[in-house]
Amino acid sequence: MSELSFAVRDVLPDRYAATPALLVRLRVEDPAADPVHTLALRAQVVLEPQRRRYGAAEGDRLLDQFGDRDRWAQTLRPMTWTICSAVVPGFTGGADVDLQLPCTYDLEVAAARYLAALDEGEVPLRLLFSGTVFRRGEGGLRIEPVPWHAEAAHRMPVAVWRELVDLHWPDSGWLRLRRDTLRALQAHRARTGATSWEETIEALLDRDRAAAGDPA
């Protein structure tokens, strides 16, 4: 089994991607004498929400995901964010690798909803690696698995996520709605004469606040 080791050097927005994505910059170290011909690498990226603290406003936004704070010891659990892969060309001793991590701001997706709730600080990540190493030696080409225990931890600043979101959806987000819900909103907008979707939803929120006696 190949004894490759991995370390995350940085995570930053991919400014040249056609769709929203982060670049995970890895350092791969290989102690073997025989060079790596090709590395087919796969990484499961996991969020570890239990490994950070949360402000009062963040806790309020996370209520629908994790419940009240007194339940967090049971509900704050690691969640898979995404799975990404790369084919790494040959190297000897070590190599720098960029993994492209596709992202969404769809608030129906648990990971995106979690990230959108954070104001500051860092996002604890863990990358779990798998894949295949194609190695060339005196006996020819041989195939080895990436060791099952290969992983790397990283604390990504929340500001990195905010920067990515602002590149694609500045000061905005989006929700996916059922067709019948959208048609009901369209009908309400037509009845009230609202000039935008934001005005339509704000009017409904104002009505809800008034019914609840909330001056905000």
Please give a handful of descriptors for the protein shown.
single chain, 216 residues, alpha+beta, five-stranded antiparallel sheet, three-stranded antiparallel sheet, 7 helices, 29% helix
Describe the protein's architecture and organization.
This protein is an alpha+beta fold. The protein has seven helices and eight strands, in the order E-E-E-H-H-H-E-E-H-E-E-E-H-H-H. 29% of the residues lie in helices and 38% in strands. Strands 3, 4, 6, 7 and 8 form a five-stranded antiparallel β-sheet that branches. A three-stranded antiparallel β-sheet has the order 1-2-5. The longest helix is centred in the C-terminal third of the chain and has 16 residues, at 197-212. The radius of gyration is 23 Å and the shape is elongated. The model has no long low-confidence stretch (mean pLDDT 91).
